Structure formats: structure tokens, C-alpha cells
Automatic annotation (TrEMBL):
PANTHER family: TRNA (ADENINE(58)-N(1))-METHYLTRANSFERASE, TRNA (ADENINE(58)-N(1))-METHYLTRANSFERASE, MITOCHONDRIAL. Keywords: Methyltransferase, S-adenosyl-L-methionine, Transferase, tRNA processing. It is an enzyme of class 2 (transferase). S-adenosyl-L-methionine binds at residues 169, 199, 218. One of its GO terms (biological process) is tRNA methylation. Belongs to the class I-like SAM-binding methyltransferase superfamily. TRM61 family. This is tRNA (adenine(58)-N(1))-methyltransferase TrmI. Residues 110-279 form the tRNA (adenine(58)-N(1))-methyltransferase catalytic subunit TRM61 C-terminal domain. GO terms for cellular component: tRNA (m1A) methyltransferase complex. Its EC number is 2.1.1.220. SUPFAM superfamilies: S-adenosyl-L-methionine-dependent methyltransferases (SSF53335). One of its GO terms (molecular function) is tRNA (adenine(58)-N1)-methyltransferase activity. Catalyzes the S-adenosyl-L-methionine-dependent formation of N(1)-methyladenine at position 58 (m1A58) in tRNA.
């Protein structure tokens, strides 16, 4: 359920300053948010409404709060560091009076700031999987690879309590990180999540056949898991696979075509570029989130039904590698694998006609030497 009203103990808050710098903290009595421009006691945030502005305090102000009965963490150590420092300019990080906007973090903010073990999927890729993978409320989803839980949290949020998510994670320590992140975000372990630890092939054998509406794979070799996925997904179900390299993407797509039980795969990547808008200075930011991974989307056919695929013309040879070419396959044929004889003849006819026209025009325009 969405959280509304005043901020409470056990909730995460996001503090954002005027420069866009963000700090995320879990509220607890007696806690302290440490910033480069002062400190913010958790007790001053508890009971505050979203959209408020809080101002940092100096170390001296925090010390006064001690006498008032509020004891910030490491307050004495902070004061000692300020008073005993031999570098006065270092005191700047202890000044107060810096303002932060207080909000509850969005799910994307939570994911980017949460403790992680494995690399997470970026929100731009997660959004693509949820949209093009058609993952909605009430669906039964199978996920391979929990990592730090970024994709799992979005899947749990998307299917809701009416749905069900089964996640298979090979490493127990990653499964532990993902489960703890979910417990912090949802305020407890979601009842509609079944987090299993072990090898995908072995764990998948115990899953109910043709039970899952959607499957999300985030692993090194998804092409080796297609046989198991076909046994678990319902006909018409959507498979979304996330891979990072072109070789992984190519092997997966060709394997899906070879098996014939998947519709023509859709392959895409999402590139994110933010913009600066300040008066007439409207331009892209110098930094952007470029390539992070490829997303392959396909749908499962009915068991025993061959998928329809586009037929390539026989004149195009896009599969023979030059290192594997037979003596009968000349180098010229492989270099022109995408150029048919018919197209070559047409190009030559057009160029010969253009050359004739140009030559005729030059002869007519040449001065008479006589």
C-alpha cells in the first residue's frame, strides 16, 4: 500500500538539495544524517510531511541537542574533529544552514540507493521489460537471477498481492541481499514472493509446468535455459531476457529461431539522455546513460506448433563465417553476401545511364576548337 501522511520511524526518506545531490536514510530515533554541509537529526524528520524543507545543523547545534536529551550518533567525535583540526578550511563541511527537500523515495530512487552486491539493472531497462514484457497485476512471473533485487522489487510491485513471483537465484548471499532489500521496501517479506536458491535447471524441475504467464531471464547463458522455460511458460506467454553483450544477444536470438517454439525475437536497447533547461540555455547534459544491455522479447508458441519466421532470400548468405568457408565459397561471394546479382545489375545499369548522360552533356558543352 502507498505510504501517506507524516514520515514515520522505519521509513526511508530522500533528501535533495538545490544542486540535485541526493541522500537516502532510514529513519530511526536518535539517528543522524551526515552531510558535507552539516547534520540532520532523524528526530527532526520524524513527523514531518513530504515536500517540506529541512535545514542542516552545525556540530555545535547538535551538541546542544545532546543536552536537550537527543544524542546524535558520533556527535562527540564530530565536535572533537572540528575543534582539533589543524586545517581550518575543513570546518566548511560542518557548517549548517544548507537546505534539503524531504520526500519519500520513488521505487527507482530506492533501487539506485539501496545496498547492493551484484550489479543492478537500470530503471530504464526495467521499465522496458515491464512494458514490452507486458507484466501486470495478478500475473504469475518466473524470474532467474535476483542479484541485489532491483528487478525483483519492480516485479513484485507490478504483479501485486493478487499475483505471484518465483525467483531463482544461484548464490545464497545474493538471495539474502535481495530479500533484505525487499523487506525494507515493503515493510516485511512479501507473501506473494517465492525466493528459491540453487541452480536454475535443478530448481526449475520442481516448478509447476505451464504455470507462468511471464518469464524474465537475467543470466549469462539464457539460450541454454530455453528448454526449461518452454516447459514452464503458458502458450502465448512472454519471455524477456536481459543480456549485456552482442555475442550473448546473437546466440540467444539464433537459438530461439532454431528451436521454432518462439515468435520472431524483438531486440532493443534503451539509451537515456537528460537535458538542461535554464532559460534559453536548453541543451543535453554532457553525461548520459548509454549502453547497459540488450533486451530480447519473444512469445511462446503452443506446444508442437512451429513459429512463423521471415524467410531469407537464397542469394543472401549471412551465416557462413569466412574462417569456416569451404573452397567452393569464394572470398568475393562472402564479401557481397548482402548484395544479390539482380541488385548488382540494376546498380550497374543506373550508373552506366548516368555516366552516358554526363558524358553527352560534356561533349555538347565543349568549345569548338575550329
Amino acid at each position: 500500500m502507498p505510504k501517506r501522511g507524516p514520515l514515520c520511524v522505519g521509513e526511508k526518506v530522500q533528501l535533495t538539495d538545490r544542486k540535485g545531490a541526493m541522500i537516502t536514510a532510514l529513519l530511526e530515533h536518535g539517528g543522524m544524517v551526515q552531510t558535507q554541509r552539516g547534520v540532520i537529526p532523524h528526530d527532526s524528520l520524524i513527523g514531518m510531511s513530504e515536500g517540506s524543507v529541512v535545514v542542516t545543523q552545525t556540530s555545535a547545534q547538535s551538541s546542544e541537542a545532546d543536552h536537550a536529551g537527543v544524542v546524535p550518533e558520533n556527535a562527540n567525535a564530530s565536535n572533537a574533529a572540528v575543534q582539533g583540526s589543524s586545517k581550518p578550511w575543513k570546518h566548511a563541511r560542518h557548517i549548517g544552514g544548507w537546505s534539503y527537500t524531504v520526500m519519500r523515495p520513488r521505487l527507482a530512487d530506492f533501487v539506485l540507493s539501496m545496498p547492493r552486491g551484484a550489479q543492478i539493472m537500470y530503471p530504464k531497462d526495467i521499465a522496458h521489460v515491464l512494458t514490452m514484457g507486458d507484466i501486470r497485476s495478478g500475473m504469475r512471473v518466473l524470474e532467474s537471477g535476483a542479484g541485489s533485487g532491483a528487478m525483483s522489487l519492480h516485479l513484485l510491485d507490478a504483479v501485486g498481492e493478487q499475483g505471484h513471483l518465483t525467483t531463482i537465484e544461484r548464490r545464497s548471499e545474493f538471495a539474502r541481499i535481495a530479500s533484505l532489500n525487499a523487506a525494507v521496501y515493503f515493510g516485511g517479506m512479501p507473501a506473494w514472493w517465492n525466493l528459491l536458491t540453487g541452480d536454475f535447471d535443478e530448481v526449475a524441475k520442481g516448478c509447476k509446468p505451464h504455470f507462468y504467464d511471464r518469464v524474465v531471464l537475467d543470466m549469462l547463458d539464457p539460450w541454454n535455459r530455453l528448454e526449461y522455460v518452454e516447459k514452464l511458460i503458458v502458450p502465448g506467454g512472454v519471455l524477456s531476457a536481459y543480456v549485456t553483450t552482442t555475442t550473448q544477444m546473437s546466440r540467444l536470438v539464433e537459438k530461439m529461431r532454431e528451436r521454432g517454439s518462439w515468435t520472431e525475437p524483438e531486440v532493443s536497447e534503451t539509451i537515456q539522455r537528460d537535458w538542461k533547461v535554464q532559460g534559453l540555455a536548453v541543451r543535453p547534459n554532457h553525461q548520459m546513460i548509454g549502453h547497459t544491455g540488450f533486451i530480447v522479447i519473444s512469445r511462446a508458441m503452443q506446444v508442437g506448433v512451429e513459429a512463423l519466421h521471415r524467410r531469407e532470400r537464397a542469394t543472401k548468405n549471412t551465416y557462413t563465417d569466412i574462417d569456416d568457408a569451404t573452397p567452393s565459397e569464394s572470398l568475393e561471394e562472402l564479401e557481397l553476401r548482402d548484395l544479390s546479382d539482380r541488385k548488382l545489375r540494376k546498380v550497374l545499369r543506373d550508373l552506366e545511364h548516368q555516366a552516358t548522360v554526363v558524358q553527352s552533356d560534356m561533349e555538347q558543352g565543349a568549345p569548338d576548337e575550329s
